[in-house]
Amino acid sequence: MSSPLNVQLEHYEGPLDLLLDLIRKQEIDIYDIPIARITAQYLDYMQRAAELDIELGAEFVYMAATLIHIKSRMLLPRDPALAEAEAEEDPRRELVERLLEHERFKHAAEMLYQKRIIEEAVWSNPQIRQFLDEEEPGLAVTLFDLVKVLQQVLERARHRPVYEVAGEDVSVPEMIARLKALLERTPAAEALSVRELFERQPSRRAVIAMFLAILEMAKMQAIRLVQRDLFGDIAIRRHRRFGEVFSSPEAMAAIEEGYR
Amino acid sequence: MEVFEVNPAADPAEAATLPEPQTDGADQRLRAVIEAIVYVAEEPVTAAQIAAALGQPEETIRRVLEALAEEYDKPHHGLAVRHVAGGYKMATKPEHHEAVRAFVKSLKPPLKLSLAALETLALIAYKQPITAPEIMEIRGVQGAGVLKTLLERKLITTAGRKNVVGRPILYKTTKEFLVQFGLKDLSELPTLKEFDELRRLALEEPATDPGSGEGAA
Amino acid sequence: MEVFEVNPAADPAEAATLPEPQTDGADQRLRAVIEAIVYVAEEPVTAAQIAAALGQPEETIRRVLEALAEEYDKPHHGLAVRHVAGGYKMATKPEHHEAVRAFVKSLKPPLKLSLAALETLALIAYKQPITAPEIMEIRGVQGAGVLKTLLERKLITTAGRKNVVGRPILYKTTKEFLVQFGLKDLSELPTLKEFDELRRLALEEPATDPGSGEGAA
Fold it and tell me: How many helices (H) and strands (E) in chain C?
C-alpha cells in the first residue's frame, strides 16, 4: 500500500487533522473522497503508530470505526428507484462537513497567528503611572482601619522574638480599666496612638485584649477613634460621654459579665 | 464611516498657502488634550470615557479621535492611534519594529501559543459562547487542555453555564484577546465563509459543493 | 545597521516614478522611525544613540529630532518632545495635566489582587461561609491582611459568627464579587472538580487516556 506518510510518522492533534492531511497532500476532492483508499491509509497510520509505540487517543479508534462504517454503506447497492426520486444522502456527507469545519478553524488559527506577528512588532509606552494618585486621603475611621493596625502589629510581633510572660494574662475588663486610667491621666484634647498602645503590650494575648478593650470602649462611647488620613495612625481620645459612661457601675459590670 | 475634518484647510487653495492646521484655540486644545490622554492611557480608551471625563459630547470626541488616527496614519509618523478592542490606543507602527526594538527596555514576553491553542481560540472566537464538549466535538480531539492555557493568558473567560445536562461551563473571548490580536472588535474577524473562499482560490476547486450550505449546523 | 527595507515608499524605483510632493520617502521614514524611538524609550535618547542604531550621521538625526521637537511644540499637540539631560524625551505638556488627571481619575481601576489575596478570595468563594482560622489553616500562612483588602474592595463581607470556641467571624463573597467576576450567581463558579479536570487535561497534553471520561475522584 502506498502511503503519503512514508518518510516519518507525523504527529496529529486528532483524527480530523490526519484525515485532512491525507486528503490535502494527495489533492483529493474533498467532496468526493475515495473512502476505501483513505480508510486504508488511515488504518495504515494507526498500525505504524502502534508499531512505534505511539499512543493514539480513543478518538482515533472511534474515527477508524466511522470510516469503516461509511465504507460499508458505500458498498451497499443503491436502490435504483430511490436514486431516481431523491438523491440518497451521501454517507460521507457528515464527515465532509466536519472536515470542512475543522479546516475553517485551521485557517482562522493561521489568521490569528498572522495578527499576533504584527502585534509583536508593535510597542506601547503608556505613561499612566505619573497620573495615578496615591490613595485618596480623608474618610472617617472605620472598624476596619483598626483591624489594619492590629494586623500590622501582629505581623511585626510574629517576626520578633516573643517573650511571653506566663503570668501576664490580662482580661478584657482589666484592660479597659487600665485604658480608662491611662485616659484619665491624659489631657482630654490629646489622643493616644493605637499603634503605640499595641506595641507596649508584652504579649500577643495582651495585644488582643487591648484591641477588644478599644472596641468595647468605642461601643460604649467612652472613647472616639480619630485618624488624619486613611493610612495615618489611628488614635483614641476621650469621648465627651467618657465620664458619664464610667459613672454608672452597671456598665463595667456588664462588660465583666460578657467576658466571664 | 464618515470622518469629520477638524482641519478647515480642506480647501486646496487654502491648504497651499496655509500648511498648518488652522483651527481655533478651543479645537486645538481639545485635540491636544485627547492626544495626551491617548498617549497616557494603558488600556484602549473609548470616546465615551474621554467624553465623560472632559464633559464634552461623545460625538465631538469621536471625531477628534478619528482625525487623530488619520493624522498619525500618515507615513511621516512612526506612531499610530489604532482602533483596538473598541477603543483607541497609541503604539509604534509595525514597519519600524527593527529599529524600535533596540530602544525598548522591557521586552514583552511573546505570547507563545501552540497551533492547538490557536485553533481552540479561533473556535471560541467564532462560536462563543461555547462549551468544552462542543469544542472537543468540532475539533475531534478529546483534550480540552489548551483551555487552561487560554484562561491563564486571559484570552478567554467563562460566560456562565449552558442549560443542558451537566450544565457545562460556557467560554467566550475577552477584551485582552482583542488587544493581543489587534482587533477592533469581533466583527473585524473574517467570516468563516471567507475562509472557504480562500481555500477554493488556493486549490482552484470548482465552486459546486454540497457542503457550503450548512449554515444550520 | 540598515533598517529601511520594509517601507515600499523607500524603494528607489517607486520613489522615482511617484514624485512625493514635499519630502521624499526616505526622509519621511527616518522621521517616523525617530518618532517611534523617542516614544518608546524610557530614558532620554541622544542623537548619537539613534545614529548608531540606524547607521546614519548624527547630524542628520539631530536635525530630525529638532524638527520633531518643533512640530510637537505647536499648540494642537498635547505631547512634547523635550530636550532633557542631553537627550530627547516624549512627554505630555504640563498645561494638559489637569485634563489628563481628570481622565485617569474617571477610569475604573481594574481588579488587581495579590496572589495571597486571590488565594484567600478563592477559598472564601468556594468554602463560604468560612472563618479566618480556617483560611489560615488551609493556606498554611497567616493571611489576615488579605481579608482586609478583600473587605475593602467589597469583594467579601462578614456573615455572622461560627459557633465554635472563640466564635470566629464567618466570611462570604458579595454581590460586587459576582459583578467583578462576571457571574450571575455562585452556581456559575466552576466547581473544583471542573477545575481539576482542566488542569489534568492540560498536564496530559495530547489526550492519550481512553477512559478519561470521569475517572477523576
Answer: 10, 5
pLDDT band at residue B200 under the 50/70/90 scheme: confident
pTM: 0.66
Nearest CA among C20, C26, C21 for reference residue C6? C26
- pLDDT tens-place string over residues B154-167: 898 888 889 998 89
pLDDT band for position B126 (50/70/90)?
very high
DSSP 3-state assignment of A133? coil
Q: How far apart are CA C32 and CA B94, in angstroms?
A: 11
Any chain C CB within 8 A of the CB of B79?
yes
CA distance A78 to A80: 6
Q: For residues A1 and A39, is the Cβ–Cβ distance under 8 A?
A: no
Taking each continuous run of H as one helix and of E as one strand, the counts in chain B are 10, 5
Exposure string for B74-91, b = 16+ CB within 10 A, e = fewer: ebbbbbbbbbbbbbbbbb
In contact, B140 and A94? CB cutoff 8 Å: no
Q: Supply the ipTM of this predicted assembly.
A: 0.73
Contact B95 C205 (CB under 8 A): no
How far does the CA of residue C181 sit from the closest CA of chain B (Å)? 9
The C-alpha angle A229, A235, A241, rounded to 5 degrees, equals 120
Q: Please tell me whether residue A96 adopts helix, strand or coil conformation.
A: helix
* Chain A to chain C Cβ contacts (< 8 Å): 41
What's the start-to-end Cα distance of chain C, in Å?
A: 60
Euclidean distance between CA atoms C186 and C178, whole angstroms: 7
The number of beta carbons lying within 10 Å of the beta carbon of residue C164 is 10
- Indicate the Cα dihedral angle A192, A198, A199, A200, nearest 10°: 80
How many C-beta atoms surround the C-beta of residue C85 within 10 A? 10
Cell of A96: 465532509
Contact A64, A50 (CB under 8 A): no
> Residues in chain A, how many?
260
Q: How far is B204 from chain C (nearest CA, A)?
A: 30
**Contact across the interface for A31 and B116, Cβ inside 8 Å:** no
Using DSSP bridges, classify how beta strands C130-131 and C87-92 pair: parallel, antiparallel or unpaired.
Answer: unpaired
Q: H or E segment at C103?
A: helix C97-106
Q: Give B82's strand partners.
A: B89
| B165: DSSP letter | T
**Looking at residues B100-123, what average pLDDT do you find?**
84
What's the DSSP call for residue B42? S
Burial of B199 (0-12, 13-18, 19+ CB in 10 A): middle
Which helix (DSSP H) or strand (DSSP E) does residue B8 occupy? none
* Tens digit of pLDDT at every position of chain A (260 positions): 445 554 467 788 889 999 999 998 999 999 999 999 999 999 999 999 888 888 888 889 999 999 999 988 888 776 666 655 556 678 899 999 999 999 999 999 999 999 999 998 999 888 887 787 644 322 332 333 333 333 443 454 455 444 444 445 678 888 888 888 888 877 776 778 787 787 777 777 888 888 888 888 888 888 888 776 555 677 888 888 888 888 777 777 777 777 76
- DSSP-derived 3-state class of residue A237: strand
Buried b (16+ CB within 10 A) or exposed e, B20-44: ebebeeebbbbbbbbbbbbbbbebb
Cα–Cα distance, C115 to C121 (Å, whole number): 10
Contacts with C92 from chain B: Cβ below 8 Å: 36, 39-40
> Are the CB atoms for B147 and B156 separated by under 8 Å?
yes
**CB contact C206 to A (< 8 Å):** yes
The string over C153-162, giving b where at least 16 C-beta atoms fall within 10 Å of a residue's C-beta and e elsewhere, is bebbbebeeb
Report CB contact under 8 Å: C148, A148: yes
